[in-house]
């Protein structure tokens, strides 16, 4: 006979036999959702006040419940709360301990609600609060990129397409090319917030509470921006979680792309950047090695974040209305993604700040061939159609390759033999500074354009995208286990 659990869950009245122990272990979620403890206590306190306003509780009953819940809050904060084997989830644990503190009155806290609307409310509140910490960590990476860009001065390097040297760009422009994708990610956090801040509480199990709860007042007290319009949708909706996981995955991809280029640029083959010892590792076998492990781990975490998104989307696919236990899997994905980002971002910000630029190696990689487009543009300015100019410069490149020479080393006679417009003025085009100076249009890689871009990036950092209530994650409202 299978071993059975000695638990007495909140729903045990319907059942004659206790739950199988292995089934109980699979069904329980306390190991994951216990970090919602302080949020759950807070929601319960406000719910007690709503029940009083609805005429369900007397003022004395409400005061006793709120006081008991305050004791719970202190126990969670101090680490003195003792979980029991009968605690199926954090909501069960809170209600069980409340009954221990205030007696049978504690059972009244569950009036007019369900764990279905409670868990959805808790998760939304937790995420609303944690987004502030995430934005702060993301801002530090952006600041590190911007600091590097501002310190780059007029240094330049090859820009790449297909991982082949293409045209010269300012190093500041290169750093900022990673700043703006992160700014889009930060803006997505702000766009997401109003869709998270919709309160499910009052939807009960699926049909709505049977008591006259003032949901709008309840939402304001908890810090929500709106209430869910449909009770069925309220308990089933996990769009906000999936959308957060998309933002997290997109952010992870951008961090991975940045990490990949740093890894390449720190290799001996490139040698453009150097990682200080504090952010590198060595080899247990090869004494000479200096490895970019932290950037490699950043690159790998993108896969972890994509996995969290894919996992939740797979759970949500095909679910019938309204609540299903499948939705218990949402928290592991949301918590995992948040933990991953909050562990990676601070280290990455410090590592980016510490990177050393090897200017001579970087600028030395910009050869005359990278100004081939500028030579074609010069011929266009002399009246040639661009396609003809392109073909002429292609012949020049082919000649240089055949001779094993750089473009600017070709003799004037050979150039004129290709086209009469390739006079001495054409050779003067083949200079990195000249190429950069031609690209001062808005968003371009020229010095003036980059200076404007630096100002725009600095201004962007001053604009926080989340409401004040989310910027400062209060310690007493956060529980990490």
Automatic annotation (TrEMBL):
PROSITE patterns: FUMARATE_LYASES. Its EC number is 4.3.2.1. Coiled coil: none annotated. Pathway: Amino-acid biosynthesis; L-arginine biosynthesis; L-arginine from L-ornithine and carbamoyl phosphate: step 3/3. GO terms for cellular component: cytosol. InterPro entries: Arg_succ_lyase_C, Argininosuccinate_lyase, Fumarase/histidase_N, Fumarate_lyase_CS, Fumarate_lyase_fam, Fumarate_lyase_N, L-Aspartase-like. Keywords: Amino-acid biosynthesis, Arginine biosynthesis, Cytoplasm, Lyase. GO terms for biological process: L-arginine biosynthetic process via ornithine. It is an enzyme of class 4 (lyase). Gene3D superfamilies: Fumarase/aspartase (C-terminal domain), Fumarase/aspartase (Central domain), Fumarase/aspartase (N-terminal domain). Residues 13-307 form the Fumarate lyase N-terminal domain. It comes from the Bacteria. Its main location: cytoplasm. It is found in: Cytoplasm. Residues 370-436 form the Argininosuccinate lyase C-terminal domain. Belongs to the lyase 1 family. Argininosuccinate lyase subfamily. NCBIfam families: argH. This is Argininosuccinate lyase. It comes from Thermanaerothrix daxensis.
